[in-house]
Design brief:
The protein is of the alpha/beta class and 402 residues long. 47% of the residues lie in helices and 16% in strands. The chain is built from 13 helices and ten strands.
């Protein structure tokens, strides 16, 4: 079994070929309530000793470690506190080698899973880890297959269990950068909604808003395609009907399942289409300030939706993204007599209901806007925005979110 799968698709309309795209994802996806119980049987096919990469509370992985042991798989644990850095990855590689581990399990939120993917890749690809990174490194191509990775998310937000990049923080440079390659995709993504039941309302809301953003942005992206469109439409529908209930009633199984699916669908979509200005800003702000990624996305989503819709109406009224924003409004509001702007208003009411912190609460000031704009312009996500926003429009988005 390969560590990833890439499907090249040619869509035929009538007699002409007018669309080419690729779709890559994890070699296998296992989804369902209680599927954590099967982790041992999957793991024993990967190797005999696992490095289990967790979030800041390694105790949450106790059940997983017991399940592994029951199937003859021993393990060592590496905890990730906050955003993983290059130092985090180097330490993880040292631990993996000292313990003679032959595969990696990421168990936690996006940070734990991204760290697991990076450790697996950089263990087998020699040289300075920084050289493989975008922006601060050389973006050196990854050529060697990684150690096998099993990604087990315990939040419903990032979708990193099926993405082809690993996001690392560079605190000395105040940036977040990616290690990117189809080889980064996990061998197995195991998604069990039950693992999210214990998430507090605040984290459920923040991560859920990240999932929602990662469904809306690929739908209107410059690189949207029929496969990602289908995922986004279904994911938005599920998130819209369940995000509030999941935050208010953490053990509500249907809502948790909807949000876990929405997160997975968003990860699949963003890995195969681009994101947009929300994530372009979030990458820059997340590198400069200690702020949860989901909270940043939530604070920015309504503002970016409004700015894009307004710019599209003024400068590119025939851009298909404008009709996509109308579609978003119809999905989230559940009726047809709406405007694209109503979808942005719905997102604003959602963040207000969750009492999402404004960017200013994380230390972002008006004096930081120019620096944020400069950093965001270099983000790959910004290049996926459906229309090129002017510097004034982008600055207004930030000012409205402060």
């Amino acid at each position: 079994m390969t560590s990833h799968q890439v499907v090249r698709v040619i869509v035929v309309h009538g007699a002409c070929l007018d669309m080419n795209f690729e779709f890559a994802t994890a070699a296998r996806i296992v989804f369902g309530q209680g599927t954590i119980r099967d982790a041992g049987s999957h793991a024993e096919r990967m190797g005999t000793r696992a490095l289990v990469v967790t979030g800041s509370n390694p105790g949450r992985a106790t059940r997983l470690i017991d399940i592994l042991r029951d199937h003859g798989v021993e393990s060592s644990t590496a905890a990730v506190y906050g955003e993983p850095t290059v130092r985090t990855i180097v330490d993880g590689i040292d631990l993996l080698r000292d313990a003679d581990c032959d595969f990696v399990i990421g168990f936690g939120g996006g940070s734990a899973i991204d760290a697991a993917k990076a450790i697996a890749i950089l263990t087998t690809n020699p040289g300075d880890p920084v050289s493989y990174l975008e922006v601060i490194g050389k973006g050196k191509p990854i050529t060697e297959p990684p150690l096998p990775v099993i990604a087990i998310p315990t939040t419903a937000g990032t979708g990193s269990e099926v993405t082809s990049n690993a996001v690392l923080a560079a605190p000395d440079r105040r940036v977040k950068v990616s290690l990117r390659s189809p080889l980064v995709l996990p061998r197995l993504a195991l998604i069990d909604p039950e693992l999210t039941y214990s998430l507090p309302p605040e984290i459920t809301a923040w991560t859920g808003m990240d999932a929602l953003t990662q469904l809306i942005e690929p739908l209107v992206s410059r690189q949207a395609n029929p496969l990602t469109d289908a995922l986004c439409r279904e994911g938005i529908r599920r998130a819209a009907r369940s995000i509030r209930r999941a935050a208010e009633h953490g053990d509500h199984a249907p809502a948790r399942e909807d949000m876990a699916l929405a997160s997975l669908m968003g990860g699949l979509a963003l890995a195969n289409a681009r994101l947009g200005a929300v994530h372009g800003f979030a990458s820059a702000i997340g590198g400069m300030f200690e702020a949860p990624h989901g909270a940043i996305c939530a604070a920015l989503l309504p503002q970016v939706m409004r700015a894009n819709i307004n710019a599209l109406r003024q400068r590119e009224p025939k851009n298909p993204a404008l009709a996509r924003y109308l579609e978003v409004a119809r999905i989230v509001l559940g009726r047809g007599d709406v405007s694209a702007e109503d979808g942005a208003a719905w997102a604003a009411e959602l963040t207000k209901g969750f009492t999402i912190p404004r960017l200013g609460s994380f230390g972002v000031k008006s004096t930081d806007v120019t620096d944020i704009l400069d950093r965001a312009a270099r983000s790959s996500s910004m290049k996926g925005n459906p229309i090129a926003l002017t510097a004034d429009e982008l600055a207004q988005v930030l000012e409205q979110a402060l």
